[in-house]
């Protein structure tokens, strides 16, 4: 009896019977002349252990991943390879090392999905003759040395400080342009300048501080300036 998720490859006198796997259900075999091997067709989860990799920009990293695959041809899995699961596991390790060795550290950290897809494509093309279908590859973790982490943190902090200085300089420039426009507007309207003066006094008076403000009307200053000119 072959279960729903299994297939049986039947050998009769050393030859695969009808070149096709049997099942599921009841399978009849002849004693003494027939032998069979059951193959599980369910998806297999394979954890790739951490691999020490030298990236394209000469940075040593440790990368591990997860591989998902299943057998789609039971006859090929039995007839074409001795141990299909071990072969797929070892091929996944070597392919991970080869592919990641051609990438820089920045690409490895930012383009995990694209790299995982390329690894899946390579594995799928290589294991097709074994009756294996690679359904998914995931890069689980990327570990870099502590010294490199500190260097990357210092670089990121310097970049943020540089951006902050640029933003502050742009703000000062915009503020100076706005003050210039405001001074031009106030110069055209003396009454507006006096109203602005009174508004500033109101703002200062609302604060709880020890500053003493002596309001002096602007028109008095203007009259004094005219008298000085006349004198």
Task: Provide keyphrases for this structure.
single chain; 231 residues; alpha+beta; Tetrahydropterin Synthase, Chain A; 3 domains; 3-stranded antiparallel beta sheet
Can you offer a commentary on this structure?
The N and C termini lie far apart (123 Å). The protein is rod-shaped. Strands 2-1-3 form a three-stranded antiparallel sheet. A three-stranded antiparallel sheet has the order 4-5-6. The protein contains seven helices and six strands. Helix 2 crosses helix 4 (112-127). The relative contact order is 0.09. The protein is 51% helix and 22% strand. By secondary structure, it is α+β, with helices and mostly antiparallel strands. It has helices at 74-79, 84-100, 105-110, 112-127, 146-188, 190-206, 218-230; strands at 6-12, 15-16, 34-40, 44-54, 60-71, 132-143. The protein folds into three domains: 1-40, no CATH class; 42-144, Tetrahydropterin Synthase, Chain A, CATH 3.30.479.30; 153-201.
